[in-house]
Design brief:
Length: 616
């Protein structure tokens, strides 16, 4: 299994489609190494000047290439004819105009009165017209019935295009997000880009035919979080070479069991049974319940970029990345087809040549796509709509709960109301992996704060929702503190760091001091990003809320769980010090924005910085 990113290093990429690997990275003519600087789009959120410490060897961090894209659904119009009125009854038409001359026939008085051509001729013409209308109505009715059948057949055809897979392959799943007082829940969608070379088209676009039979890697991963009230949206990218704990997963197709591991990077999770294992990995990392996933491959990116007529992007300098094939002059461009794929796969040509710069380029692309789709650009032509529907459905692999056009369309409508100005693109705050600083990265404490904000459904952009918050429904009264049994577990350990010693004991001691005399620490360490209080049945909800309130934990951290044998408090990686749960503040939000290099979707001024050694 290959993970490394350092060109020429022990873990160097083996793809022959990336010429130049095996040389020292980014050295100029004088042999001096290129020192990466703080990345910047040239637009987006304003950050305070700072010089964050770069991980050792970060200039060699350059993961694999691919992309992901969230599709849009399509509309369908049905023609409805005007109502048809039955023809009127007329008298005897035996005496009509002479068909040979057009003059009066037998019995005609020639005066236009009763029996004359003025009346009977008009009757014959009216009857002929009515018969024509009758046939038009019949043909139209048949056409409507036929088109309805064709529409249904086309709908089923689109459904058949969509590939489906299991949502979560892990043994332990995060509890679903808790609804607010209005019954609204957040929506979390994992967007994946596969580097599969299984098809000839993907081999042509991505190269590396020798990799046709290897398991694909999820080289692009983005978590799309939509707030419960649909007032804001946050998209979080994770570098593909982030070392994480990949939980135990079972392949639903052949029953292969992949044991838990902390030795691999997150893009390898796709090979542990499918996208459902990547979902399980994200839930383990973030503590956020994933509702759906959507995965796309190389060919899907090309076809969908063509279907929407291209996407506007910008570069600050001429760029030529021979490894991806991208070659552009400085300024604005509208890219489509294979050039769009080149943009989304380029890493060496942007910023410091690492996967971080590539995630920023992907954010710019997605923001432009969002603006384009929300404005209706290129979607007024029925042919374009049909093309987009075909491209979207053929390009997608989704979870079984999202496997029809109607469900995709309904989800698209659900997302459509989020204002563009409240859509934030971010990259997970990261640092060098202590075990392999030249090739891998790991989440930082700022990443934990980012995931905590999303888990608690708090906006990353720091803006308050303009929608009126519903009034909370009163709950039952809890039992006396001395009667509430609480088990406390230490979940502060992650793939990047060991668990903080004695955290469960510290919090259980605090509960004892608060009057929860049945609180007890569990010695078995866990691994959980966010702190939670779980309870097994509805009659224990009030008691669980009382435990959380006593420690300053948010109500969103209290969840019902079928796996809980009693009230269980897991102290997560978001609570490594102190005996009161740390409160979020504006400084936490600012730290997340600064560390994540956030970009707002409404910002049209963003322009990618080009690696100096990839200019022409």
């Amino acid at each position: 299994m290959r993970h490394g990113s350092a060109p020429g290093g022990l873990n160097a990429p083996r793809e022959p489609h990336e010429p130049g690997w095996g040389n020292a990275p980014y050295r100029g003519g004088d042999g001096a190494p290129y020192i990466p600087q703080q990345p910047s789009y040239g637009g987006g959120y304003q950050q305070q000047p700072q010089q964050p410490q770069q991980p050792q060897g970060q200039q060699q961090y350059a993961p694999y290439d691919t992309t992901a894209y969230q599709p849009s659904a399509f509309d369908q119009e049905v023609y409805e004819p005007e109502p048809y009125a039955p023809e009127e009854e007329y008298g005897d038409d035996s005496a009509a105009t002479d068909p040979r001359t057009g003059g009066p026939g037998d019995g005609d008085d020639g005066a236009g009165g009763p029996g004359g051509p003025g009346r009977r001729g008009n009757r014959r013409r009216k009857k002929g017209k009515r018969r024509a209308l009758r046939w038009v109505a019949i043909v139209t009715s048949l056409a409507i019935v036929g088109s309805a059948g064709a529409a249904w057949a086309y709908y089923e055809h689109l459904n058949a295009n969509i590939r489906k897979d299991a949502l979560n392959l892990g043994d332990s799943k995060v509890d679903k997000s808790k609804a607010n007082a209005a019954g609204q829940t957040p929506l979390n969608i994992l967007l994946l880009g596969s580097d599969s070379r299984a098809s000839k088209e993907n081999q042509k676009l991505g190269g590396a035919k020798a990799d046709a039979n290897r398991k694909p890697l999820a080289d692009v991963q983005m978590l799309l979080h939509v707030s419960a009230d649909r007032s804001n949206m946050t998209v979080v990218s994770i570098p593909r070479d982030t070392r994480v704990t990949i939980p135990k997963c079972t392949d639903p197709d052949d029953g292969t069991v992949y044991p838990e591991t902390s030795a691999e990077t997150i893009n390898a999770s796709l090979g542990h049974g499918g996208p459902g294992c990547t979902v399980a990995t994200w839930e383990n990392l973030t503590g956020i319940s994933i509702d759906h996933f959507m995965m796309i491959d190389f060919a899907g990116v090309v076809s969908m970029a063509d279907a929407v007529g291209g996407v506007p992007v910008c570069v600050k300098s001429n760029v030529w990345d021979k490894k991806s094939g991208l070659k552009l002059t400085a300024g604005d461009h509208t890219i489509k087809g294979q050039q769009a794929l080149q943009w989304l796969r380029t890493r060496h040509g942007f910023e410091d040549g690492s996967d971080i710069g590539r995630t920023h380029a992907q954010h710019m692309y997605m923001n432009a796509m969002v603006r384009q789709l929300k404005s209706g650009t290129k979607l007024t032509d029925p042919g374009a709509l049909t093309g987009l529907a075909e491209s979207a459905t053929k390009a997608l692999t989704v979870d079984t709960g999202l496997g029809t056009v109607k469900k995709l369309y309904d989800m698209g409508n659900d997302l459509k109301g989020v204002p563009t100005s409240r859509i934030t693109m971010t990259t997970m705050p990261w640092g060098a992996d202590p075990e392999d600083p030249n090739a891998h990265v790991v989440p930082t404490p700022a990443a934990t704060k980012l995931f905590t904000l999303l888990r608690n459904d708090q906006p990353v952009d720091g803006k308050a929702s303009q929608k009126k918050k519903p009034t909370a429904t009163p709950t039952a009264k809890p039992d006396a503190k001395a009667d509430i049994a609480v088990t406390v577990e230490n979940g502060t350990g992650t793939a990047a760091q060991a668990a903080v010693p004695r955290r469960a004991k510290a919090i259980s001691d605090r509960l004892l001091a608060l009057g929860f005399t049945q609180a007890a620490a569990e010695s078995t360490p866990q691994s959980q990003s966010g702190s939670t209080v779980t309870y097994p049945s509805d009659d224990q909800q009030a008691n669980a809320l009382a435990v959380a309130k006593s420690l300053g934990m948010p109500t969103s951290s209290v969840k019902k769980s079928d796996q809980a044998s009693g009230i269980t408090l897991v102290v997560g990686a978001d609570w490594t010090t102190g005996t009161s749960y740390p409160k979020q503040s504006s400084s936490d939000t600012k730290e997340v924005l600064d560390s994540a290099n956030a970009l707002n979707a409404s910002d049209k001024s963003a322009c990618m910085k080009v690696n100096p050694y990839y200019r022409w």
